[in-house]
Amino acid sequence: MTSPDAPRRGAGQVLAALALLSLFGLFLLAAAPVRAQALLRDPDIEHALRQIAAPVFQAAGVNQSSIRILVVSDDSLNAFVADGQHILIHSGLLLRFDTAAQLQGVIAHELAHITQGHLARRPLNMQAGGRLTGLGIALAIAAAIAGAPDAGVGIVAGTTNTAMRSFFVHTRAEESGADQTAARYMTSAGIDPRAMMEVLEIFRGQEALSAGRIDPYALTHPLSAERIRGLEGHATAYDASRARARAEDDYWFQRMKIKLSAFLRTPPYTLRQAERIDNPELAALARAIAHHRTPKPAEARAEMERLMAMRPDDPYYYELKGQILLESRDVKGAAAAYGRAVQLAPREYVILADLGRAQLASGDVQAAYDTLSRARLHDAANPRLLRDLAMAEARLGMQGQASVTTAERFLLMGQPSDARLHAERALGALPQGSTGWLRAQDVLSATKDAR
């Protein structure tokens, strides 16, 4: 898991970034560079989110495989849908939750935006045009939001204040409708809709910090007090006798939150928190990450052995063991751990990319190229994967392919000048009309208007 230092951005900056993306197409990111990868790609956390979201998706009648839930590295309190296939939740919001039900309430709300067709009715709706060439929309959006707060300013500068207010009024109506739909999903899933009210109380606390400066008509959401009142009927009508068993939800929620916190907060803080964790497994997880980040590799490995004795067939613990070993320079041990994780979870393509990285570090370049190429087919929104793949291609003498892969990586990271440079280099090395040549053309097209 990586923990990028993504800056905080407001709703207006998100709007500007989305405006830029909708105008120039799916891949155009930012005129300004991002500081780091904006998404926290951790297979354990993403699996936990899927487990927690499952009853909500089932209640909504939505195939869960059609929508991904991803984490944006940002300490502000926010969640949003950027298209009909991705729900993005800020790490800061996840760390503020106390229960799985609160997270389920947010997922239900964002899912309602998708099922109610709100995105399709917005003029800023993302349109996936042209050849996609595998570049990921989710990371493109997150990169634009994290690193280009002013990117869309020129585009929206001509929009009058009245027009902006009209757009936000429409959005506020959608938010209220999404609340009502989400509450129905929660009730149908046997989850107390009062958890949504608890989340809104968190937001109301944030509003209170600057209550004297709030303009209700310039907000993308209704004021939280207004939304809480709108949910009171659902909370009153909820039949607690229909509540679903929550043990599994709570386990995955606590595991996700502990791992996220351990990677984002300081090791001393994590070790203090571990003393308060009742579950021995999750306490060991916290200690393993804290010791790894200190770094105390022997202590981290000892905690991992305790974890794996408790859950010997858990692919995500093998993945974490692989990370600890790889970053401790035990390359062969890391490759073995990642390999076992892939055996246990063959469709976790972030883990597959990690295996490719370990193979590359061990000097098995052909195996690394094959593994990374396979991972890229399913998960191209991963700059670290593209970096490793470009290295493997270069070592195998595939210089043109390495250049285009590098160009795509820089594009996803919001560095258009570097993307253009490598795309032009690829065009000079690849046969005209080949797949790689066309990919390089796509990069140039996506960055031609970026300054």
Q: What does this protein structure show overall?
A:
This protein is mainly α and about 450 residues long. The chain has helices spanning about 10-25, 45-60, 90-95, 100-115, 120, 135-145, 155, 160-190, 195-210, 225-235, 245-265, 265-275, 280-295, 295-310, 315-325, 330-345, 350-360, 365-380, 385-395, 400-410, 415-430, 435-445, and strands at about 40, 70, 80, 85-90. Strands 1-2-4-3 form a four-stranded mixed sheet. A hairpin with a 4-residue loop joins strand 3 (about 80) and strand 4. Helix 4 crosses helix 8, helix 9 packs antiparallel against helix 10 and helix 17 runs antiparallel to helix 18 (about 365-380). Mean pLDDT is about 80; it is low at about 5-35, about 125-165 and about 210-220.
Key phrases:
mainly alpha; four-stranded mixed beta sheet; 3% strand; 451 residues
Strand content: under 5%
- Straight-line distance between termini: 32 Å
Order of strands, widest sheet = 1-2-4-3
Give the class from helix and strand content and strand pairing.
mainly alpha
Overall strand count: 4
Poorly predicted tracts of residues = 3-37, 123-164, 208-218
Query: Could you state the order of secondary-structure elements as H and E?
Result: HEHEEEHHHHHHHHHHHHHHHHHHHH
* Helical segment count: 22
Main beta sheet: 4 strands, mixed
What integer value in Å does the Rg equal? 23 Å
Overall 3D shape: globular
**Average pLDDT rating:** 79
Helical content (DSSP H or I, runs of 4+): 55-70%
